[in-house]
Amino acid sequence: MVSIRYGTKMLCLRYSTAATLWINMPIQAITFDFWSTLYHYIESPRVRQRQEIQKMLLAYGHQYPEQQVTDAMKKAWQIWDDIWRTDHYTPEADAWLGFVIENLNVDLPKSVLEETASILEKSVLTDATQPVDGVPEILKKLSTKYRLGIISDTGLGKGNVLRTLLERDSLLSYFSHFTFSDEFGRSKPHADVFSATLKGLNVKSHQAIHIGDLRHTDIAGAQKAGMSSIRFAGIRDDKDENYPEANLIIYNYNELEEALNKLEIMPSGARNNATPQ
To answer: Which 3 state secondary structure label does DSSP give 72?
Structure first.
């Protein structure tokens, strides 16, 4: 039996000696979610996005109150969220902008919508989007020991935009595989997203750990794929009990190496079957 701390609780794990002989394999790869795990907003891009939409509308003689545009954006995000949760894919900026325009009941040329969508895609490329505290330091350390990958559900910013952020902050080279939902065509928690990433990293599921902030996508998806998981709760602490909990929870990246060490000493079968007691 192995016991490890799970927040303020202990995980008590039982497994057979025979099983340990073949499943006690070291962790070889770590995958990360992007938003609220590796990066966060110091200042939300929503205001800039609204201003771009108002600018587009005004250019064609449509003057809407700020609150009406804000409400249309909220409704568009609700539609986006329903598609993401139900169909497991993430509509891109042009589709999201279409939802906004439909809510405002206005007709604009396709070329104008495409131009504005392109601007919205890059709206996160500002100094207000920054790595989470401790991320640059921990990635540098982990990259010397593990293969690192990213599994991200993209919003308005596509995978190439997120790569630009990583390159700006000298973090891109630490990763050897990227699975962005706009490029892959599926989003978490769909099993194909995780299996494709594992294949890209050339590891089996029991040799990998996923770190993310959302229980319904990151944790549920990783568990279905047979991976262990760590929930990063430093930006957003997801307490939705309708979905499974991670093997371990951390609140800052100073805790990550200790968490990985705890998971390393556990046979992989025990890691994947661990539950709080």
So the answer is: helix
Residues in the chain: 277
Q: Which residues pair with 2 in a beta bridge?
A: 13
3-class SS at 144? coil
- The model's pLDDT over 149-184, given as tens digits with 9 standing for 90+, comes to 999 999 999 999 999 999 999 999 999 999 999 999
157 & 255 share domain: yes
Together in a domain, 112 and 140: no
Per-residue HEC secondary structure of 253-268 comes to HHHHHHHHHHHHCCCH
Please provide the distance, in angstroms rounded to a whole number, between the alpha carbons at the two ends of the chain.
Answer: 14
Cα–Cα dist 245/243, whole Å: 7
Within the chain, strands assigned E span 2-6, 9-13, 29-32, 39-41, 129-131, 147-152, 177-180, 208-212, 228-232, 248-250
Indicate the pairing of strand 147-152 with strand 208-212. Answer: unpaired
DSSP 212: E
Q: Are both 105 and 138 inside the same structural domain?
A: no
What is the pTM for the complete model shown?
0.87
Of 210, 216, 183, whose CA–CA distance to 195 is shortest? 210
